[in-house]
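User: Structure tokens for this complex, please. No commentary.
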Amino acid sequence: MNGPGAGPDDPVIVIGSGIAGLTTALALAPLPVLLLTRDCLGEGSSTALAQGGIAASVGADDDAGLHLADTLDAGDGLCDADIAATILDHAVQAIAMLARNGMIFDRDADGTIALGLEAAHSRRRILHAGGDGTGAAITEALARAVRACPSVTVIAGADARRLTMANGRVTGIMVHQAGGMRHIPAWRVVLATGGIGGLFDATTNPVGNYGAGVAMAARAGAVLTDMEFVQFHPTALASNSHPLALISEAVRGEGAILLNDLGQRFMDGTPGKELAPRDVTARAIHAQIKAGRRVFLDARAAIGDRFGSRFPGIARLCAANGIDPARDLIPVQPAAHYHMGGILTDAQGRSSLPGLWAVGECASTGLHGANRLASNSLLEAAVMGMAVARDIRDHRFPRRQPQPRPQLAPTTIAPADPAPVRAVVSRHLGVLRDAEGLDMAIAELLPLALSDRPGADPALVALSVAVFARLRQESRGAHSRTDFPASQPIGTRHSMTLSQIIAAAQGITAPDLVPARSA
Ligand code: FAD
Ligand code: SIN
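Assistant:
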């Protein structure tokens, strides 16, 4: 698809108003920015739901090296150690940036910053606000700063649907607003569209977040990486709601334990017990549930009457389900929570396409590897938002701006609907995977991804997860194959463009079942 050529004075377009988009827009000042977001500013984001907090090695017993060691351990051999070191080294700057923008972190009685503990962290290093309201506090502070920032123009209710390209370079985006579809020319676009949890029935993410940015980037030709790595949070509140409410890992950090309905503390024999890496705990709970057991978090002895003051938001979520965590067991289940994979970026947040940057959960820098260390994602989004802004400021308008050329029309720019893919994704791309299930998922998702139906973009993202998962014949981090339970001796990141993904899918699927059409 093409659009009118972009001009040097076009504003930078930032898509999404979670921590990644808000930070990038602010850090770009005084460069003019058009911030497009699907809902109202800061709404429809995972950021606003974040409970545990933001990791930073600011404690007296801590340093960036220890934080790096924990991050690499959790990442199970797949982190990019250089990028991880760079991002974690900037943690103090990210906290200072948030504080400058009005964020107030919780303090202990003696006035020092209060530091929480989460799984697989060897130190207390989780800064939080309002007890368990970190994400809401970040959103409120940054959204207020954006509203007051003269260089940022916010367009709410804007659903970005396609990047427009000419000669391999970004020329703008197609966006749907109340008045209909419109093309906005731009030579610098930043995707900050969040994760893919909305593809699953059981998720903690806003249900509309299916990976729109990943789909747009893939359709434009960008390289995707590590798409198979979906993190399942072990302790979502078991209920029929969609999304599921989260019971923060910080609750286990304060000593809450996991029990099954026989009263057995089934994590007792596992190294780290309830604070084992997230993938380990999620698999243990999944195994209990598969065996017909129910699983509960027991905060009664460890937290008891302090629950309401330390975790006021979670106490409210429990109360809405008739549960008092000071006295009752909390029923929990794993839920899709975070996507380690996404649009491949370098240390400046540049994608493989000129003019396109990605930041936050839709990007994959290599910080998280195969399994994200808790509370590293808000940190990554804040650090990388600032890095992207620095990089864009150094960019010069290309002297020979490519003229738009006719290209293939997009298969669809209808509103996306993840509902048609949720059953297949939930059945085959969950906590445990195998070749048979992945092949079924690929066979079902491929025709939809190649269609112009409303499920096409979500199907394309889900197909990418399935193909990467099918090709990774090992278990590593959050990717667990029952048919390949061991890890390969050396961990390798995998990257593909959409045409490679589709070719791989067509190779896996019986060719006579699937019409071979281009994306
Ligand atoms: P998001 O915050 O998800 O924002 C994405 C934005 O893009 C939204 O504004 C959305 O509306 C917009 N958007 C999407 N598609 C389009 C489109 N096509 N057009 C226009 N706009 C679009 N991480 C931590 O580090 N610590 C925690 O304590 C923590 N707790 C969490 C608790 C929950 C319940 C969840 C779900 C996640 C948690 N995480 C936590 C993960 C973390 O919150 C996210 O990884 C992070 O907030 C992602 O930020 P983001 O800006 O990349 O995306
Ligand atoms: C939690 O509070 O358990 C979520 C933290 C995270 O996802 O980083």
